[in-house]
What does this fold into?
Amino acid sequence: MLTVINLSKQIGNFYLNNVNFKVNKGEYFVLLGPSGSGKSLLLEIIAGLQKPDQGKITLNNVNITEEKIQKRKVGIVFQDYALFPHMTVYENIIFSLSKKESKQNTIKELLKLLSIEHLLNRKPSSLSGGEKQRVALARALAAKPLLLLLDEPLASTDAMLKAEIRALLRNINKLGQTVIHVTHDYQDAITLSSKIGILNNGTLEDIGTTSEIFLKPKSLFIAKLMGIKNFFPAKIISEDENNQIKVVSIPENIEIKLVTEFSCGKEGWIIINSEDIVISLEYNKVSSNNQFKGKIVEIVPILNSIEVIIEASGIWAALVTYEAAYRLNLKENMEVWISFKSVAVKFVPN
Amino acid sequence: MKNNNLNLIFTLLGGILLLFIVAPILGLFLFTSKGSIINTINDEETIKSMGLTLWASMSATIIASFLAIPLAYLLARKSFWGRSFILSLINLPIVIPHTAAGIALLGVVSSNTTIGKFLKYLGLDFINNPKGIIIAMMFVSVPFLVNAAYEAFSNVPVKLEKAALTLGASVSKMFFTISLPLASKGIISGMIMMFARGMSEFGAVVIIAYYPTITPVLIYEKFTSLGLSYALPITTVFMIITLIVFIVLNIVTHIKKNVDSY
It folds into this structure.
């Protein structure tokens, strides 16, 4: 599908350095990197909006390195959507189409898929962020691109909307659309990608399937970027009579109770926010379904709180207030109990 | 308290300036008798000259648009050697005395020059001809249009143009459906300014085409040959027409602004 070979570009003091990767048809490729790592520049080069200094890009075995932007069949959704403000939603969507094409059923289906049929006569300025996002996606998809590029599509959306847009993006990908998505948010990568590339300061540091990158991060930078804390591969092994609480095992053979809609046998990852983990000095009869004994290995003060790293069949991070750390007299090498509720455990399927 | 004093002083100073602008215009209306205005309206020569003035300025604006809009777009979007020089050059007609501009133009189009002879051979005679009025008006007023269009194109986000290209639009489709409509408010304002400026031109026109007489030349002619009382009614009527045109055009653009508010 897409191959990027030895791609380099210099802008001022910034170098995009000899980037190589391949995206297969139907893949959801997430380019993950901190801001200023060159993600958007790489995306613009693929779309033809910037010319590379060196290297080659092929799409379906055709060399498109020097191809005109409008002939590439590469769609892009910009971070700020770039909707045409003087046109209605409908005019925006059919911009790339001839009159005949705009009357085809595929457009109706697209509008339905993105749930924007009711917005067609509105101007972009009257739309909410999520609506603009959908319209921008519809406009890009209407042109039937071979490859869809998404530039930080979830950067300016709130948590509620994020889940909705992620589901939509997954749907679009399931329908066969090949996607390259650039982001600085590892959660986008976990929830959406089938393949991840890690871009750091203009260099592609690692590339692989989502599990390869998460389970064996090549460097501390990657681990940090991935926000790896309380993140474990897991498999649902049993469920209670009401189908409510399920038990997952993680490689260290501990069992964790959680609430999820997925059923027995499903594999994936579990994530527990460090602010949801409670530290106590002894075993407590509390409502939390998960409780383990462990040892404090590190205490790291951060902005308004303290991060306590505990080893308990795996490395766990718990966030506590200064006041609590002082009250419990937490110290390194101290034995403590950690507990968290079943509802605090998020299960992300493979 | 100090703030109030400052406001008072500023209001007073601003008021003096407004009076300075309004007083002569108001004076025109007060000192011109109704009868003489009616006579002027019925005078064929005057009406003809006013029609010619409006027509010539409108023509100059429309012709200039075809040349100024592409130039403004290039200046706003492309970086090339000599761009800053061109941006300064555009404003040259504003700074040189308009009679000097007329003389300079005459130097090019006069039938004594090679270019003038060639143009005459092509059937383009500018001396004492409406065509001469048009080029004189165009020369002095086109900077207003180029500057406004340049500003308007610069304000159109480049990203929108790029988005159009990624959607398969040709460069001309991109220009006509994205860049031009989004810059249209600014361009139309520039056209109104150019039209208004062209309509009031005297210096450059009088040198190239004294005849047929446009209204500013007619006013000058009446004043020098017959005196103030003969010049006043034409001035008043022309002032009214100018104001009406200016107000109507402003309303039209204002309506467009409301329709297109985004």
